[in-house]
């Protein structure tokens, strides 16, 4: 089996990334008034259809400040009645996004796929406060800056799965439509078999991912299989809801192997194997068995959020009219150590079995691995 990404020093690997500008370019959101929405006032339209974006008073502010146009003309009267077919545009003003890394390492690349070593703190896709400072933006800029006009006509690579903002490691991206479709089916197929015979036997499908994590407490058993469903609950600051351990959710399976127990630090270094994964699956599953990721600000014991009053939503609004930054932890908050270390993949075009490895952060190395890395560096 070819091993890719683990036979070069970090400094010799290809890296890319453009420093983020001070502010992004803002955003524009387009709508066309449907027959069912005709007759609504402009404030009724936005405050009901996009309640997760801003509270009522926030939308009033946006309208009064001239951020919304109807058929190309700025409208500041919130009681303006909308007609069928009217074209609405909400202009979100440019803002300074929170700090995020911009340099990304390439672990593997061919004509169809590219595997990146995503740094912790960098979001994969646009969402919330991060609309420009994402992996997707850097991939787009990388493609736009590549030499020939012919290359620039190609669509830029796109991620085919996600890693949490605080999670580092292997992020697989597709460079062609065919590769994207097949990789997406790999992930979907792995998820659909959870609980089936293939998972019971621990056979590999088309793709498998192995993570490293540092958890709180001492895990007693050397191997733990977690078969716990994951669902969604209402949660402040997360418009679509928060993923948690839930008997009414969708099935999810994680296999945990213990690598090192540190009694003095009351922590355990673990390896977690999943074939595809629900959102935040590893964080939820490890907390479900009583060992949340060390430093995880969101998930507590039981696979549930640490906060209790999760139904409370702050209706006050920020300077741009949107909701205030949540006071409760949200999924994008960092502080934990979780790393997508190894990915075993049947190539979407050639069917060749390849293994991609992202170097481990020092905090997630066993003492033996740390010594080996030092020895290799001294030799080099």
Automatic annotation (TrEMBL):
Pseudouridine synthase RsuA/RluA-like domain sequence ranges: 112-287
Q: Which GO terms describe its molecular function?
A: pseudouridine synthase activity; RNA binding
Q: Name one Pfam family in it.
A: PseudoU_synth_2
Q: What GO terms describe the biological role, i.e. biological process, of this protein? A: enzyme-directed rRNA pseudouridine synthesis
Q: According to its UniProt record, which reaction does this protein catalyse?
A: a uridine in RNA = a pseudouridine in RNA
InterPro entries according to UniProt: PsdUridine_synth_cat_dom_sf, PsdUridine_synth_RluA-like_CS, PsdUridine_synth_RsuA/RluA, RluA_PseudoU_synthase
At the top level, the lineage of the source is: Eukaryota
The UniProt keywords, alphabetically, are: RNA-binding
Write the protein's name: Pseudouridine synthase RsuA/RluA-like domain-containing protein
Q: Which organism is it from?
A: Psophocarpus tetragonolobus (Winged bean)
